[in-house]
Design brief:
The chain is an alpha+beta fold. About 45% of the residues lie in helices and about 10% in strands. The strands form 6 sheets. A 6-stranded antiparallel sheet has the order 7-12-8-9-10-11. Strands 13, 14, 16, 17 and 18 form a 5-stranded antiparallel sheet that branches. The chain has a 5-stranded antiparallel sheet with strand order 21-22-23-24-25, with helices on one face.
Length: about 850
């Protein structure tokens, strides 16, 4: 009977009877249950929905009022609000605006306002005008819906513009529902409130601020015009620069916090709470512009005579927040991010330059990155420096007075700010020098501003350390060299960068490798080196294996954990197979990657890539340009699958990619293109242009070949579906079962081989060493229940002796296995932490309490 008309009639019968009997109280639960199956069981839903639509207005008005009451009574996080929103969108009951009961109109506005937009513009207009004609102000959240609908629907502007103009004089200047906008509206209300003593002053101040916010909401271009800026500066003068700075930065610091008035996702749509209200986003851009007009002079705190650090910090955080990626949508709001970058470019202070330099290593969205690059290039040109030099000089000390350390005296207490690895920490001591737990009460009471700045410095240092580590990791292909004195100033002895540079190996004058230990630069024999002419970053591809191992031992002997793989860096040498193919490498072909994860990784590593859509379109391969070498590296990829919704996202982009060759071309060679769904790559030739052949791999400098292949290995190692422990069924229709098995338990790639070498040294130090052994591709762990085999590449587990699969999904962050293992020679290998965590768990398998894992044992 499944899917038959009889079945639909049976399922619809209870609701239809309640409608026929006029039983509203019993109907509401039935309709809420119906909302859960509207997409999968539309025929049943249609019968019930049509029956509701044919009832009289009195019945439908009562239903609307009950649904609105149910919505307002529902607890946050329950399913009722979402189901009510779905019902409201399908019931098409906005014709009730002509019903005499104002309670019904209020209920309609309540239910309409929880939607991201309304497609029933005619009903929306009738509802609003009925309220306005009776002299009622529209609720702020309902106004917000009208504005959003006008901005986001292609026909909304024409239909809704007259209504938007009509409500403008009395409507909130911003849409309520977002934390920052609510704060601004609350401040505005407080400023316009009057009392007996300063009624006129408060009213004037409130009107000045209302005009400033109204001006901000007109920021409809990419950059402020001269006229817009002139008006903005006049409005800032009216409210006062100091007050403007305090309020604007306070509001902007709240951007990105959860919505205060949740919007309900549609049946198929993305979560509107994950993005910015489009009307408010325009206001944000205007506020950001206004911030950039403010003077930076003035005492912000005891250690800095300018307001620029706080301003730059706020704008930089806005860029990060606005470019956070939302599944199925992309960045939250690039136009807000772009405004913040342009504002930073206008602020001539080292704090703003530092934020731009940090963003240059973190931003992957092409449009915003272009603005960051342009701002840094402009600043470099103005100072007569190279782009690389401006990025080096832009890194602030954040109050550190020596490499990785500073002391701040606050009353009788002393705060010690120290950098340990990738994190900054604050510790406290009292007047007698004794370390105390937590922040002393006197500091909280008497030095609140200084404490706030110290906490902000800790966060700033953490973000900058991550950015500078990424920048240093890119230096291998940058062909940079530094005069010895400049290198010491900008790297080794820099208060912040020095914490990274002192954990790396360097080459002095082309032939002397040094590391930093015991306060000195030292050779492999620990001989101090105190001078030189030229310094370059050390790479293992230029050294014999024995020498590389010796430096690894040196790092371990001195207890140095590198910020990323350097001495343990994988080296990819030309293979016989690649000599045979000549111009391309198949080393990383025939893999299945998660497209969006690959796309993000590629951007972070400096590759350009275009998301493949399941449409009739072409795209170039993933490309990394190497201008210092005159080369362009290409990784050929194609979308995998054809079934919409299974192989694609709702927007039609492929979920997975199939990989192919790695090739190299001269950097100015015409680009290659292929159909997004697969097929041969071909060179896109302009008028009269000749095709250019791929370069022989044997002619590619070993350093370039190794670093490019290492990037590609990273893409495969992180984004492969073979890494997903839940894919033992092979994914959709089992299509990838063979690949998942071959990858998840197959031969080790270069990264996994490096991991194996490291585990050989780590395992003997573990408390569970007696239960572990390395054999081939696996780490064997002897538990009380079973013997387990952990694959060193994917982290997947088999139970011996029959190789039964054991699915353990690692927690975010990989656990604390690194700390339990003691010394680790480098940071950043999450899979290593995952493997160690699994080994420690399985060695004590009788103590496992997770029911999901126990059911498999």
């Amino acid at each position: 009977m499944a899917g038959t008309p009889e079945r639909y009639a049976d399922e619809a019968a209870p609701s239809l009877k309640l409608i026929a009997d006029g039983q509203l109280d019993g109907l509401v639960p039935e309709l809420l249950a119906l909302a859960e199956v509207i997409a999968d069981d539309w025929r049943t839903a249609r019968q019930v929905i049509d029956a509701v639509r044919w009832t009289d207005r009195s019945f439908r008005g009562g239903l609307v009022r009950r649904l609105a009451a149910r919505y307002q009574e529902a607890e946050r996080g329950s399913s009722d609000p979402r189901r009510i929103a779905i019902l409201f969108a399908h019931l098409d009951i906005t014709d009730l605006v002509s019903e005499s009961s104002r309670d019904t109109r209020e209920a309609l506005m309540t239910l309409a306002a929880v939607q991201e937009m309304s497609y029933e513009t005619a009903g929306l207009i009738r509802l609003a005008e009925a309220e306005l004609d009776e002299g009622h102000a529209l609720p702020g959240l309902f106004v917000a819906l009208i504005r959003r609908s006008q901005l986001t629907m292609w026909y909304g502007g024409k239909d809704l513009s007259p209504l938007v103009e009509r409500i403008a004089p009395t409507a909130p200047v911003l849409n309520p529902g977002e934390a920052w906008a609510d704060r601004a509206l609350a401040d505005l209300e407080a400023l316009t409130a009057t009392d007996k003593t300063d009624k006129a002053d408060k009213a004037d101040k409130g009107e000045d601020w209302r005009r400033l916010l109204a001006h901000a909401i007109t920021a409809n271009s990419a950059r402020p015009s001269t006229k817009w800026e002139r008006a903005g500066r006049t409005l800032i003068d009216a409210v006062g620069a100091d007050e403007a700075r305090a309020r604007l930065l306070d509001w902007l610091s709240l951007v990105g916090r959860p919505r205060t008035a949740p919007l309900q996702p549609g049946q198929y749509g993305n979560d509107p709470a994950a993005t910015f209200d489009p009307y408010n986003a325009t206001g944000l851009r205007g506020l950001i512009w206004l911030v950039s007009f403010l003077p930076t002079e003035g005492a912000a705190d005891a250690t800095d005579t300018s307001h620029a650090p706080l301003t730059a910090r706020t704008l930089g955080a806005l860029v990060d927040t606005s470019l956070r990626r939302v599944p199925g949508v992309g960045p939250v709001n690039p136009k807000v991010a772009n405004a913040a970058v342009n504002a930073l470019a206008r602020i001539e202070h080292e704090a703003a330059l530092a934020e731009l330099a940090r963003l240059a290593t973190r931003v992957t969205y092409k449009g915003t990155l272009k603005l960051v690059d342009a701002a840094l290039d402009t600043r470099a040109q103005a100072l007569g420096l190279s782009r690389e030099e401006i990025e080096e000089l832009a890194v602030p000390a954040y109050g550190l007075t020596e490499v990785g350390r500073a002391e701040h005296r606050l009353g009788e207490a002393t705060a010690v700010l120290e950098v340990h690895g990738a994190k900054a920490t604050l510790t406290w001591s009292n007047a007698s020098g004794k370390t105390v737990k937590g922040i002393p009460a006197a500091v909280r009471r008497d030095h609140a501003d200084e404490l706030k700045e110290l906490k902000a410095a800790v966060k700033d240092i953490d973000k900058m350390l991550s950015a500078q580590s990424e920048r240093l990791d890119r230096q291998f292909l940058a062909r940079r060299s530094w005069p010895y004195a400049a290198w010491r100033e900008r790297y080794l002895d820099h208060p912040l960068v020095g914490t990274l540079a002192r954990r790396l190996l360097w080459t002095i004058d082309g032939n002397t490798t040094v590391g930093f230990a015991d306060g000195e630069l030292r050779t492999l024999a620990d001989t101090p080196v105190t001078e030189g002419r030229e310094v370059t970053v050390w790479h293992p591809v230029d050294h014999e294996p024995a020498r590389i191992v010796a430096w690894r031992d040196w790092l371990e002997r001195h207890g140095i954990t590198q910020p990323f793989k350097q001495a343990h860096r994988e080296v990819y040498l030309l293979t016989d197979a690649e000599r045979a193919t000549g111009t391309y490498s198949n080393r990383f072909a025939a893999h299945i990657l998660r497209q969006h994860q690959f796309h993000s990784l590629a951007a972070v590593r400096g590759w350009r890539n275009k998301l493949r859509l399941c449409v009739d379109d072409q795209a170039p391969p993933a490309v990394r340009e190497l201008p210092e070498w005159g080369l362009r590296a290409e990784y050929w990829i194609e979308g995998d699958g054809r079934e919409y919704g299974i192989d694609t996202t709702e927007s039609g982009s492929f979920l997975r990619l199939r990989t192919d060759q790695v090739r190299f071309y001269p950097i100015d060679a015409p680009g290659n293109w292929a159909h997004c769904c697969g097929g041969e790559y071909g060179m896109w030739l302009g008028d009269g242009a000749d095709p250019v052949e791929a370069l022989p791999l044997s002619g590619i400098p070993p350093l370039v070949l190794s670093e490019v292949l290492r990037d590609v290995d990273l893409f495969v190692g992180v984004a492969s579906v073979g890494n997903d422990p839940t894919w033992q069924d092979g994914g959709p229709e089992g299509r990838y079962r063979e690949y998942w098995t071959s990858y998840g338990f197959g031969e080790l790639n270069q990264t996994a081989q490096t991991r194996r070498v490291l585990l050989e040294r780590l395992i003997p130090r573990l408390a569970i060493a007696g239960r572990c052994r390395l054999e081939g591709r696996f780490l064997y762990v002897e538990g009380e229940r079973h013997t387990y085999k952990i694959h060193l590449g994917s982290g997947n587990i088999l139970i011996s002796p029959h190789d039964r699969y054991l699915c353990i999904v690692p927690k975010s962050g990989g656990g604390t296995a690194g700390a339990q293992a003691g010394y680790l020679p480098y940071e950043g290998d999450r899979m290593l932490a995952v493997i160690l965590s699994k080994a420690m768990m399985l060695a004590a398998d009788t103590e496992i309490t997770d029911p999901t894992i126990l059911s498999q044992l």
